[in-house]
Design goal:
The chain has one domain. Helix content is 81%, strand content 0%. It contains 13 helices and no strands. The longest helix is centred in the N-terminal third of the chain and has 31 residues.
């Protein structure tokens, strides 16, 4: 019996270690994908490299693509690091300043994204999809910033998870586009679907994650710790 009790008691740490490793691997994958897309997107700021025909035909391509790329790429590059507890614990001031830069990038990217959505040549379905994500991106990011300033840090982290799920649409869009091309869709047809597909599943996954987190004592403990203590 003692042996069985010891074996049973040893299971939770192993399960916890496995979950921790999976979580770390997921974060690393998201961070690498985000960095890759962000660095490639900065080409619009430098005005070098190829431009998709659908993007180039946008009525408001210049100068709004530069504003959009600068803001969205910066948010995409910084976003993953905002969710690392070790960074918040060791360098809280860095977390706050990179958080401000992330919010500024989202606001720039979202506002300019609405302008570009209005000028898209991909049709009304794509226009409505890109407009919807732009509005939601601005809203959830503003809520995240507002709750941080009010000291409501559990709420702040929840809103910023929602925000980054939409920021990450830049990555999922670039994953789905070549798949759509390989399946024989035209670029215009692909954009009409991906304008919604690039962010709706992301937002749904964030909500599922947040709802499951409510039932997790560990998640409650993490999200209830004030920022100045982490």
């Amino acid at each position: 019996m003692t042996f069985l009790a010891e074996r049973t008691a040893s299971v939770p740490p192993v399960v916890g270690d496995t979950k921790s490793k999976l979580s770390g691997s997921a974060w690393l994958g998201a961070a690498l994908l985000s960095a890759g897309v962000a660095l490639v997107s900065y080409r619009y700021v430098a005005q070098v490299g190829p431009v998709s025909p659908t993007v180039a035909q946008n009525r408001f391509f210049q100068p709004w693509i530069i504003v959009h790329a600068a803001g969205a790429a910066t948010a995409l590059l910084l976003g993953p690091f905002q969710f690392r507890p070790v960074l918040r614990r060791r360098w809280p001031r860095v977390h706050r300043w990179t958080g401000r830069a992330y919010v500024a990038g989202c606001l720039m990217g979202g506002a300019s994204g609405l302008v570009l959505a209005a000028g898209t040549s991909a049709g009304p379905v794509a226009q409505s999809g890109f407009s919807a994500v732009g509005i939601l991106w601005l809203y959830v990011t503003a809520r995240g910033w507002g709750t941080a300033r009010a000291g409501r840090f559990p709420e702040h982290r929840r809103w910023m998870i929602r925000s980054f799920s939409l920021t990450f649409a830049a990555v999922t869009l670039r994953i789905y586009l070549p798949i759509a091309m390989a399946l024989g869709f035209s670029l215009t047809s692909a954009y009409q679907v991906i304008a919604w597909l690039s962010w709706v599943p992301n937002a749904a996954f964030a909500e599922i994650y947040l709802r499951r987190g409510k039932a997790s004592p560990a998640a409650v403990a993490i999200t209830s710790t004030p920022l100045w203590r982490t």
